[in-house]
From TrEMBL:
Molecular function terms from GO: ATP binding
Protein keywords: ATP-binding, Nucleotide-binding, Transport
Full protein name: ABC transporter ATP-binding protein
SUPFAM superfamilies named in the record: P-loop containing nucleoside triphosphate hydrolases
Residue ranges annotated for the ABC transporter domain, each copy included: 2-231
Domain of life of the source: Bacteria
Amino acid sequence: MLQITELNKTYGDHQALRGLNLTVNKGEVFCLLGQNGAGKTTTINIALGFLPATSGSVAIDGWQVTPGGSNASKSVAYIPEVVMLYANLTAIENLDFFSQLAGYSYSKAELQSFLTDANLQADAHHKRVGTFSKGMRQKVGIAIAIAKNASVILMDEPTSGLDPRATDEFTRIVKNLAAQGKSVLIATHDIFNAVNIGTHIGIMKNGQLLHVVNAADITPDALQRLYLETI
Ligand SMILES: Nc1ncnc2c1ncn2[C@@H]1O[C@H](COP(=O)(O)OP(=O)(O)OP(=O)(O)O)[C@@H](O)[C@H]1O
């Protein structure tokens, strides 16, 4: 579970986050919409412990996030827009490397099962990732999150640049993660996919969450109208 409470962040004299409150329970997928500069990346970076908050708190499964690593960071995984992997290593070698970095040592069979859980086709497990598409890199990133046993997964613009088939596959993978009890937070500009993939959708403006809606209660058209009225 991810719990953000009264989070403020100031860069110099610019206030990027203003008393942000946001909760993602187990099994929920929270899509965070907002214009460029609304504060989505700042929120993710504080939740990861990459940036200190000015005030307020972020907790992962009840553990407070503190900059530079904590018990909380062990339970959180990040899938950036482009997942950075070692181009000359295979998918399974990358997964093994990053799992070991997180303190886990898995057998080859276990590593393969994580890649399969992330929907990476078997014939790609032993291919170097240098040739992988964005979607395939994402699957390795998701396998790393599964191997790390992360209970909270944060994603930045995961569907930008994915073709419709890859987006549909990604949607199914994320729904599966949620069904396994993960909490997923996705910063996105993709309104249509937010309705498809999310259980909850938040609209952020100037560092505040102005609306939170249940994805089941809104159509993409209605969400687009609400978004345009809000930002
Ligand atoms: N290191 C920094 N120093 C100064 N200002 C910053 C810094 N990082 C972000 N900001 C400012 O804080 C605000 C929030 O930025 P942030 O990157 O969190 O927004 P965002 O919603 O993620 O935007 P995008 O959709 O473009 O990624 C913006 O006004 C941005 O210019």
